[in-house]
Amino acid sequence: MTVEEKIIGILKDNKIAYEVFEHEPVFTNPTMAAALNVSESETVKSLVVMTKEKEMVVLVMPGDKKVEWKKAAANIGTKKISFAKPEQVLEKVGCEVGCVPPFGQLTDLPIFMDPDLARKDFVYFNPGVHDKSYKIKAWDLKKVCHPKI
Of 62, 65, 98, 118, which residue has the fewest beta carbons closer than 10 angstroms? Predict the structure, then answer.
């Protein structure tokens, strides 16, 4: 079962309405926002990071935000974080960097969500592929991805 099929299952199981948008492959939030004709802040950035203790964590945030490394590390409970290597992300999450979905139940990775994301009406995320985006209510994303805020 693909990452996208698993996400569809999660959305259906939780009775969450969603829309699917097909577009040219995108690898960054600015190009995703342009392809969807939405603001970058409505796109979801899911970054897989590695803690100093060699544990992987997913940071979920609005697409227009930059990681505040020290603050993020403190919120996670570690001294330092850095990007996980692309091959580690592919092995653990099942998709490439640039299309990691914001769903914790797909892996055993903890999800840390920026509170600004849940304040949006709708958000758009890649479902493990670069050429599709899903639109759901931001509140539903928070409900279904089981994040730490």
Answer: 65
